[in-house]
Amino acid sequence: MGQVYVLNHPLIQHKLTFIRDKNTGTKEFRALVQEVAMLMAYEITRDLPLVEVETETPVALAKTKVIEGKTLALVPVLRAGLGMVDGILTLIPNAKVGHVGLYRDPDTLEPVEYYCKLPLHIEERDVIVVDPMLATGGSAAAAITAVKDRGATAVKLMCLVAAPVGIDKVQEEHPDVDIYVAAVDEGLNHHGYIVPGLGDAGDRLFGTR
Ligand code: PRP
Ligand code: URA
């Protein structure tokens, strides 16, 4: 079974408080989501494999380390996942970026795929699917299925806020996928929103409603 990591670094928790605040406007919300995504990227990349190389410093030849293999692929779930990409790229500027487009049918809450474009050689890359919200888990599970169907084998999921039911759904459908979140909330309301959550992440990021 995949692990669930709650990233409770004080900076992440502090910033998340202001992300949740309904009085935080679009500009600040966007900036905070990027900052938290960057901090989460630091944690999620902790286990990347290293390989030894030789580097000539101005003084001597040194045995040093670089990350092994092909660069990571980030796969934001459109739209709201886009809000986390630049923050992660601040730390991992060489990462490739794919996109999976999904929306929740407002009546059934089921995800509907409308777009999928992934980096080449996805099967050789560590893939991080990113979406701020893990509510019913339908969107994340479908996004992970979409990348696996196209060959990805090493997938992690990064979200800001999760509901327990969403975690259960992803673990059930994708037991090989580790989940990284900044918080696990109480549950969902009858509109499928996370409680207390932070509202509609896409609308708050892009100033729509
Ligand atoms: C939100 C969010 C997730 C999904 C989570 O997207 O960004 O993708 O809902 O809900 P689930 O776990 O119940 O599937 P939404 O469908 O509102 O689209 P948007 O990103 O375009 O706003
Ligand atoms: N999608 C959101 O944007 N927010 C929620 O609380 C649940 C799904």
Automatic annotation (TrEMBL):
HAMAP family: Upp_B. This is Uracil phosphoribosyltransferase. Allosterically activated by GTP. One of its GO terms (biological process) is uracil salvage. Keywords: Allosteric enzyme, Glycosyltransferase, GTP-binding, Magnesium, Nucleotide-binding, Transferase. One of its GO terms (cellular component) is cytoplasm. One of its GO terms (molecular function) is GTP binding. The lineage of its organism: Bacteria, Bacillati, Bacillota, Bacilli, Bacillales. The gene is upp. Its cofactor is Mg(2+). Belongs to the UPRTase family.
